[in-house]
Amino acid sequence: MSDGIRLKIFLQPKASRDQIVGIHNEELKITITAPPIEGQANAHLLNS
Questions:
Q1: What family does the database annotate (predicted)?
Q2: What's the DSSP call for residue 29?
Q3: How many CB atoms lie within 10 A of CB 2?
Q4: How confident is the model at residue 1 (pLDDT cuts 50, 70, 90)?
Q5: Does the N-terminal or the C-terminal CB of the chain have fewer CB atoms within 10 Å?
Q6: pTM of the predicted model, to two decimals?
Q7: Is 30 a member of any domain?
């Protein structure tokens, strides 16, 4: 048995605000304000 948890995330960049929206097609939907340019959206998610 391994430690930790694995989540499937549906990330929507360039949204009006950062928030956890809920479940979207068996994935956790998260909206963020960062644009999907050169990894900015991924970095924003990890640093939030």
A1: Belongs to the UPF0235 family.
A2: E
A3: 5
A4: low
A5: N
A6: 0.81
A7: yes
